[in-house]
Amino acid sequence: MESNDKHQKLFSKNINILSHEVALNEVVRNIEEGKFVFNNFGKNSHLVNPHKKSKMIETILLNIPLPILYLDVTNETKFRPVDDFGYEFLYAIQEFMMNGLRLTGLEFFNYNKFSFEELPEYEKNRIFWRVVSIRYFSPTTPKLEKYVIINRVTNKSLLQAQDLEPELLIFLNQIKEYIRYEIQFLPKNINLIELISLFVAFYLEGKKFDKNTNFQYFKNKVLLQIDVRDQELLRSLKEKIKEALKNLSLLEQNKKANMHWFLCLLVALTDEKKLAKIMQNSDIFIKKLHFQNLRSDYLRNIEFIENIIQAL
To answer: For the chain, which terminal residue's Cβ has fewer other Cβ atoms within 10 angstroms, N or C?
Structure first.
């Protein structure tokens, strides 16, 4: 029991989550000063929908309790929301209080077509002094621990490019460019960075994946644990995926296959014994794959492929 307590303290001392209660006027001031990172805005249609933003403002006017706003401090002065609510909330505030958004589709107030400046003074004050609960991760919180907590709080796998080490991003993009110019058989609708990321995760730690694990969460957690200083590891990964892709091209795969299917085949093709057996019986292997019965279940796909290989 004593050793468990010590382990818990050692782990938790690296995590620094700060609590703060702020009025919306302070949030607006921080937005004006450029302290929030809005890198996702404009990419999702629901974030630019005026009805969505208007309903968020109406929620504030109704004094309905707001969810906690979770922020990631990317450096000492920049803040980034970690979930959809954070982006939607801050974007609505920015558009309404700073950019002249006119309200639309309100259900409880007769303020449709009103801008912020046109609201009665007491309503503007109600918005200005509405208190928001904020939790944010300090820069000292390690990326992996931060990601695990964010996943638990939001129940989503929110990993963005800036969360990864620059060396790992360079590595992923190098493989992407190699595939674009050297590998011709992959369907155009496949997200190459996603495929490479999944391959890296499942090649390294695939045996630890189980049916109760969130697919994206598993991938992201493995990526965050990669030691980018280990150049030998990165070189080995690069060679493994290139070799697997070349072997996959020899099998002349059916282009109806989806990303999960390619992932499972790529991982299987990194095993030398399995590869030798597949290549010796490639015609039979291809016929038994039955691409018309594609599934997005990694474990079932792997089991299916394993059974075919064993029967060769």
So the answer is: N
- Residue 12 tokens read as 């938790």
User: What are the tens digits of pLDDT across the range 51-92?
Assistant: 888 998 999 999 998 888 888 876 667 788 877 788 888 888
Rounded to the nearest angstrom, the gap between the alpha carbon of residue 72 and the centroid of all alpha carbons in its chain is 14
Q: 0.85 cut: is pTM over it?
A: no
Tell me which DSSP letter residue 63 carries.
T
The DSSP secondary-structure symbol of 165 reads -
Q: For the chain, what's the residue count?
A: 312
Query: 3-class SS at 255?
Result: coil
Distance between CA atoms of 166 and 164, rounded to whole angstroms?
Answer: 6
Query: What is the phi/psi pair of residue 59, to 5°?
Result: -60, -40
Contact (Cβ atoms closer than 8 angstroms) between residue 135 and residue 69: yes
The pair of three-digit structure tokens given for residue 95, joined into one six-digit string: 């558009």
CA of residue 239 relative to chain centroid, distance: 26
pLDDT band at 198 (very low <50, low <70, confident <90, very high): confident
What is the pLDDT at residue 302? Answer: 79
**pLDDT tens profile 128-158:** 999 999 888 777 777 777 777 776 766 665 5
Beta partners for residue 96, in sequence order: none
- Does residue 60 contact residue 66 with C-beta atoms inside 8 Å? yes
DSSP string, 109-147: -S-TT--GGGS-HHHHHHHHT-EEEEEEE-TTS-HHHHH
Strand bridging mode 79-81 / 17-23: unpaired
CB 228 within 8 A of CB 167: yes
Helix (H) or strand (E) holding 11: helix 2-12
Other CB atoms closer than 10 Å to residue 301's CB: what's the count?
A: 21
Alpha-carbon distance of 245 to 179, in angstroms, equals 8
C-alpha–C-alpha distance, residues 272 and 267, integer Å: 11
> By three-state DSSP, how is residue 40 classified?
coil
Backbone dihedral angles phi then psi of residue 35, each to the nearest 5 degrees: -85, -10
